[in-house]
Design brief:
This protein is α+β, with helices and mostly antiparallel strands and 439 residues long. The protein has 11 helices and 26 strands.
Length: 439
Amino acid sequence: MRFGETPIDEATGAILAHSRRADGINFSKGRRLSAEDVDRLKTAGVASVVAARLDPDDIHEDQAAEAIAKALAGVGIDITAPFTGRCNHFAREAGLAVVDHERVDALNELHESVTVATLPPYARVTPRQMVATVKIIPYAAPRTAVDRAIEVAKASNQPMVSVAPFKPMRAGLVQTRLPGTRDKVLDKAVGTTGKRLTSLGSALVGERRVAHDAAAIAAALKELKQEGCDIYLVAGASAIVDRHDVVPSGIEQAGGTVIHFGMPVDPGNLLLTAELDGKPVLGLPGCAKSPKYNGFDMVLERLAAGLPVGRSEIVKMGAGGLLAEIPTRPQPRDDSDSEDAAPQQAPRVAVLLLAAGRSTRMGGPNKMLAEADGQPLVVHAVKAALASQAVEVVVVLGHMAEQVKAAIDQAVPANSKLRTMRRATYRKSSPDSSMRRSQ
């Protein structure tokens, strides 16, 4: 492709590089100039334009984008008509975006004129949501680059980008209880689990509540088998800590097989995967009781989309498995029900250290100045406060204020977080007595 200043007499058929809106002319960049366009520009006094002229081995941006987009798209994808060198891929129905990360990288390495951008692999999508976009950097791409991109896109039996639609599942839930387990907690877990399944087009069709005992779990699973479940979920009253713990033992007693324990996802580390008569069984981590996104969701979504979730798939979830900062789950192990739209901020906490008392219960000596391990007690308290993540430490002084302050100043270096305040004398006539700063 030849690009640059082009004499107006040679501009017919060239692609306008920059928009021109003046003298009654309104031409957008990317416009292929016709003979009539050139005449209008000449009439307006234009002597030259910045334009791109395609060589015989170049492919126009729209044609190139469409060819590559069709080559990399798989099932569940609708492709838009090309426009300004771009072709978009949209999900046909709800499901997971299945993306071949390595081939996307390989395609983008080929030539700077050919680019493809996608959602992260296994991102959850809704109908008509954009999944990928092919963009040709204006205004054409070499034919060799386009041909190589198509080869990369077709290099495997699997498409580069597709959508695995969610399929309805009938789920059974077993919850165990220990002495002190409240029905309210179990009820909440039923509601949360039901909503998760409903959002995937599935349903919770059966629930059993049993003692935290392997035999009881096995019996409950056998009962749910009779109800035609496609997936079994086991939520223990106590977290699974070993593949031979109560929950996995109960699954095995029911005739199941443990596949893998643990996952490199936080929250969700203690998830267990198993199989019972060819159907998936999940031993749930404690975070599964929370409605916020966690490792349980990552596995459940793939199962609902009909994708394999064996040991190999789970151990590869570590990259991107730290879910602490995503908006739908601001902090690991945060059990609150709020769904903040932005990542949660660390709270600003100040420490108020009360050191104004007279220590009358000590029988005379000031407790603040009593020594332990060679330092006054007040110094130990101040140092502990300063070592925390508090944004400010305020020491309130009163009885023997000068001596207490001197002990602090001697042991603690100047610190912007530390200041002292003197307690004011209480007066009955002044109910809103305040403290005055000494420093």
